[in-house]
Specification:
With 393 residues, the protein is of the alpha/beta class. The protein is built from 18 helices and 7 strands.
């Protein structure tokens, strides 16, 4: 689908909006279908506003920008460099500007949602924690348990996990959803990928991406202590041919391939810590691809080794030859907190608000926590979740 033209509209928007919008249109074919629909709906709504209303909507942002020392972007500028972002963020007016931008986008989102242009879907998020965690006496997701229901199982979740997840992955997608909006799995290991990929879903595995992660880490460790060097290295990584480092399945999906590049470049520990990769990857997938079903598979982290300098993007396995050791206690803290972040990320996104079930499970625990609208999951958890996904939002 060719990108729509909003050149005249962009000229009437705040200056800081142009580079980002131009960049999205330049990479239109790499945007996920949900992103394309959402962006088009937002800009169509703005295009339909009377000139005075549009001016009033952005008045505070435009006034703040007039006080800020913004970069001298050309009208067709696409994207912001690290230097440009730094200039924006260092402005004393940046906190006010960011608050106003969030307010305006909130109003646009509300208007688009009320218009009914974007169809709603029932959705499911499954957060999986590994076996071997020290669960005794440890309250699990206490902040969420009061808003959900604990469901007792006849066996540890790990016993029923493969069959249950396979049933969910094999489901028929609702009309209007493309394959890349169906099922995603983002995990530390490879178990979920083996379930999801054969059914046409999208799978990203920390383990399977080891060679790509090492390539990115090698480049990032060449950055000198200045923004010009950071920009140069970022530009190099944007041109790295990922096809040498990823599976044929991912190579056949340019959108997912470039999503992965963006994910690894965005920081948040995704290159260094496996559970951070799962949490941040899941949050970004929810924001961008908006899958109807997302599996987030957390894992057992290794104890940090002294003098491994992980903060400098070094791989501690190569920086320190000491044998790896599992860290069950640290893994429990990480996985409980980061899986909760995945749920909270979904609740901040319009497509997931009010129509999402989040299932939290530990492989060797015989109960699961279900957070979402009231749902009777007895006697067959899988059947009820499939029924939930198939029913209208």
């Amino acid at each position: 689908m060719a990108p729509p033209s909003y050149k005249e509209l962009i000229g009437r928007l705040p200056r800081s909006f142009g580079p980002s919008l131009n960049d999205q249109f330049r990479q239109w074919d790499l945007l996920f279908p949900a992103e394309q629909r959402q962006l088009k709906a937002q800009l169509d709504w703005l295009s339909g506003q009377p000139p005075d209303d549009l001016k009033k909507l952005f008045a505070t942002i435009v006034e703040l920008e007039s006080r800020m020392d913004l970069p001298r972007w050309q009208a067709d500028a696409a994207g912001m460099s690290i230097h440009d972002v730094g200039v924006l963020a260092r402005s004393p007016y940046y906190p006010q500007w960011r608050t106003e931008v969030e307010k305006v986008f909130g109003r646009i989102e509300d208007a688009v949602r009320a218009s009914g242009v974007l169809k709603s879907q029932r959705r499911l998020i499954v957060c999986l924690l590994p076996a071997g965690l020290p669960l005794a006496g440890q309250p699990l997701w206490p902040d969420l348990a009061g808003r959900g229901q604990w469901v007792q199982l006849g066996v540890p979740f790990g016993k029923m996990e493969p069959a249950l997840l396979a049933r969910l992955a094999k489901r028929e997608l609702p009309q209007g959803l493309e394959a890349e909006e169906g099922t995603w799995a983002i995990e530390c290991g490879t178990t979920l990928s083996a379930i999801v990929e054969p059914e046409g879903g999208t799978a990203l595995s920390w383990t399977a991406l080891e060679s790509l992660r090492r390539e990115f880490l090698t480049h990032l460790n060449t950055i000198r202590r200045d923004l010009k060097s950071a920009d140069q290295t970022t530009d190099e990584l944007k041109r790295v041919d990922l096809r040498k480092y990823i599976s044929p399945e991912l190579n056949r999906r340019p959108r997912v391939r470039e999503f992965l590049r963006s994910l690894l470049l965005s920081g948040n520990g995704s290159l260094v810590f496996s559970n951070s990769f799962v949490q941040w990857g899941s949050s970004e997938a929810l924001r961008r691809a908006q899958p109807q079903v997302l599996f987030a598979g957390f894992g057992m982290r290794q104890k940090l080794k002294p003098f491994s300098s992980v903060v400098l993007f070094e791989d501690q396995h190569t920086a320190n030859p000491t044998p790896d050791q599992d860290d069950p206690a640290g893994s429990l803290v990480d996985a409980v907190l980061l899986s909760q972040y995945v749920h909270l990320a979904s609740q901040g996104l319009s497509p997931y608000q009010g129509n999402t079930q989040t299932l939290f499970a530990v492989e060797d625990l015989d109960r699961v926590l279900l957070v979402g609208p009231a749902l009777d999951v007895k006697p067959d958890l899988g059947a009820q979740l499939l029924k939930w996904l198939a029913s209208p939002a």
